[in-house]
Design brief:
Blueprint lengths: L1 E3 L4 H15 L6 E3 L14 E7 L7 H8 L8 E13 L2 E3 L6 H10 L4 E11 L11 H23 L10 H24 L1 E3 L8 H5 L5 E4 L2 E4 L8 H5 L5 E3 L1 H29 L6 H23 L1 H10 L2 H8 L25 E2 L1
Parallel strand pairs: 1-2, 1-3, 3-4, 4-6
Antiparallel strand pairs: 2-11, 4-5, 7-10, 8-9
Helix pairs in contact: 1-4, 8-9, 9-10
The chain binds flavin mononucleotide and iron/sulfur cluster (2 copies).
């Protein structure tokens, strides 16, 4: 089994799938992709079961990297459980949606000689602390039961060799693929840029050591987030002091910087071209403006996420400004980790469980 879990749901699901497989007399090995492990090499007759959180209708970018680096196989089977975020309304649970996550992941392995045999969703409490408070009490219990049931059904199906695939029509497939790609390419990086540690940070460094994407470095006793963030939300949920917030000030600044770049790129591109070739026009001029527009926007973006972000990080660390930059709605949100889950420490040896 290969597991990626930000806040413990996928780890819990993997445990249930594993017991179903053990119960059917199979041997089970598990590797923790979030702790740096690679997809193992398997032979025909073996089954690779991937249990992973779903982020933005996609597998996390870290899992995508591992899948791309996976060894070729001579026909080993592969099954995928997408661990989603569900909700509860009027006492009824509703499931999450994994978009095209399993289609993309299994397709990638198929091209490497693996044989996809099944895919399914399992819906657990959502851990999207940027947008909503995690379900608590009876709601949390109901969602854990729902997720455990989904995982058990999936595990049994694999054990009995009667796996089925998640079905998507052309519209949901295309939409899921597109949103998943946008999430992996842009959105996850944006979300990472919004994190700030507030005054309650104890400088313990756990967030940096446990980050599956090695996106956090401790600088002057405070965490700093890089663009490697895969948006798994482990840091914000696992911080023992609940010190990590989604910064309102950063949200506004990042949004403004992007809007400004979008507005300024066109006139800047036109101005550059007119200065280089005064009086030029025609369709080729329009195409040149369009191309340069994209280049100028990319340059603005690089500036904004590079040097300007470093300047912002140093400004927001000033004790007088920290409270302002760390203010945000997440301050009042409860954090969520699946019961009993302790994130693996990436700085210790690569974790392999049996
Ligand atoms: C940034 C982000 C994006 C998410 N996107 C989805 C999604 O597209 N579909 C879904 O069902 N759940 C989504 N979720 C919810 C998680 O997949 C869900 O809480 C899952 O159970 C987390 O598993 P884990 O505890 O193993 O990390 C998202 C969560 C986060 C933080
Ligand atoms: S885990 Fe929390 S308290 Fe520890 S360094 Fe990170 S933000 Fe600070
Ligand atoms: S920075 Fe936080 S949310 Fe981003 S990958 Fe690391 S632990 Fe996950």
């Amino acid at each position: 089994m290969a597991v990626f879990s930000g806040s413990g749901n996928a780890m819990r699901a993997a445990g249930i799938v594993g017991s179903e497989l053990l119960g059917s007399g199979r041997n089970v090995d598990a590797v923790d992709l979030a702790a740096g492990a690679a997809i193992p090499a398997l032979d025909r007759g073996d089954v690779l079961v991937i249990c992973s959180s779903t982020l933005g209708f996609s597998v996390p970018s870290v899992v995508m990297e591992r899948l791309k680096a996976a060894p070729r196989s001579g026909g080993a089977a592969v099954a995928m459980l997408c661990v989603c975020g569900g909700g509860v309304k009027n006492g009824r649970t509703s499931g999450g949606w994994s978009g095209a996550a399993s289609i993309v992941a299994l397709g990638l392995l198929r091209r490497k000689g693996w044989k996809p045999v099944a895919s399914a969703d399992a819906s657990y409490p959502q851990n999207w602390t940027q947008t909503a408070e995690a379900p608590a009490g009876a709601d949390e219990t109901a969602l854990l039961e729902r997720g455990d049931g989904d995982a058990r059904t999936f595990g049994r199906a694999i054990a009995e060799g009667r796996g089925a695939f998640l079905r998507r029509n052309i519209l949901t497939h295309t939409l899921g693929r597109l949103i998943g790609w946008i999430f992996r390419t842009v959105v996850r990086r944006m979300l990472g840029r919004l994190f700030v540690a507030d005054d309650s940070c104890t400088s313990c460094g756990l967030c940096a050591r446990a980050c599956p994407a090695t996106a956090i470095t401790m600088r002057d006793g405070l965490p700093a987030w890089s663009l490697r963030c895969c948006a798994c939300n482990r840091c914000i949920n696992a911080c023992p002091a609940s010190a990590i917030q989604t910064s309102r000030a950063r949200l506004v600044l990042v949004a403004l910087a992007n809007i400004a770049a979008m507005i300024a790129a066109g006139p800047a591109a036109r101005g550059i071209l007119q200065a280089a070739a005064p009086g030029s026009g025609g369709p080729f001029f329009g195409l040149a403006v369009f191309t340069l527009n994209i280049a100028v926007y990319a340059a603005f973006t690089a500036l904004q996420i590079g040097p300007l972000d470093s300047v912002l990080r140093s400004i927001e660390r000033k004790p007088a400004l920290r409270r302002f930059f760390a203010a945000g709605h997440t301050k009042r949100f409860r954090r969520y980790l699946a019961p009993g889950f302790r994130p693996a420490d990436r700085s210790s040896a690569m974790s392999t469980t049996r």
